[in-house]
Amino acid sequence: MLRLISLFFLTLSAINSTAYPAQFASSGERIYDKSEIITGADQTEKYLPFLKGKRIGVVANQSSMIGQKSIVDSLVSLGIKIVKVFGPEHGFRGNASNGAAVNNEIDAKTGIPIISLYGKNQKPTKEQLADIDLMVFDIQDVGCRYYTNINTLEYVMEACAENNKELLILDRPNPNAYVVDGPVMTDDKFKSAIGIHYIPMTHGMTIGEFAQYLNGEGYLKEQCKLNIIKVANYDHDMPYELPINPSPNLNTQQAVMLFPSLCMFEGTAINEGRGTYMPFTVLGAPALKGKYSFSYKPVSIPGMSERPNHKDSVCYGLDLRNYDINKLRRSRQIDLSLLIELYNAYPDKAHFFTPGRANQDISAFDLRIGTDQLRKQIIAGVSEADIRKSWEPGLQNFKATRMKYLLYP
């Protein structure tokens, strides 16, 4: 028996040796450097025995890694029986453009069926879960309401609760965990595919914490049975550079950090870098010619953005590739000044905010922000200080609620 246990942990060491040097205590538990952030997935010794002998479903994408290897490939190599993989927006291997339909398929590498959870089938069905004993959720999030991984999380939790399936969450750090900011969505009319939760634009929680929030705040008709493998040696203020791009258009750490501030521009006349290889680090529009000297041209890029705003037109605006992202950490705020600046610079203000739902006074911008108040404040010329003051009651209430579900300092 001792020989088998020793062989088991040597196998785990081999799987993870490219990520960090593995050491083991006499008890067989892994020893980590206390200064090193270790994701839930990388702490294989804490959950592999729980998976053995079960039929496993995995919710994963290209960010779901054990060391340098896909979690699915790793678990299969360790003899874990994965019967299905469920992929969110951008697909399991992360090669689909934003908003693009992702079809069900068979994974070419493993032969495992892949079920798309982006499109018509957002929630696993009873039939899809019938041959699964345990679901595993391992996806890197970036902490924004309009980043759709938290929508997928809710749908998966709901399906698991309805079908009496336990959900194992392998937690990962939130690179924007230091900031809880923006208006809180309070009205159902602003719900959409890019926002279904009554939270601020940035929520400051990890996926594991957010799952507890969903369970505790009544988002589900019945609670989901959760088992969370926490991130080791982590707190919310720690800088965390993502080892894998979480989606095709967040291809640099600069983009990940600027995403909460720049994704606001979707729903406006401003291109936010989609259609370039520097998405979410530049802002511009053809109408700003003469206002700014920096320029770039968005084009169709398969697997990133096929139909970017202002496709094949030269855009003029701001180059934020050298923007001091530590400024965001110090302020613990999204950068609202960029939106105010470009709205004031835009010559045709009546068409700055793009239309949203037909026959309703809700713009595409409102759906992303979760309220129409910010749009109306920008148009009315309300100062940044007063806009932020209007957010405070909702933010303070949310922060108090959020505290109940935190797993980390």
TrEMBL record:
Entry keyword set: Signal
Gene3D superfamilies, per database record: 3.90.1150.140, Uncharacterised protein PF07075, DUF1343 (3.40.50.12170)
Annotated ranges, domain Peptidoglycan beta-N-acetylmuramidase NamZ C-terminal: 257-408
Record-level Gene Ontology MF annotations: peptidoglycan beta-N-acetylmuramidase activity
Domain Peptidoglycan beta-N-acetylmuramidase NamZ N-terminal: 56-253
Top-level taxon of origin: Bacteria
Keyword GTP-binding part of the UniProt annotation: no
InterPro entries xref list: NamZ, NamZ_C, NamZ_N
A Pfam family assignment: NamZ_N
Signal peptide location: 1-19
Name recorded for this polypeptide: Uncharacterized conserved protein YbbC, DUF1343 family
Annotated organism of origin: Dyadobacter psychrophilus
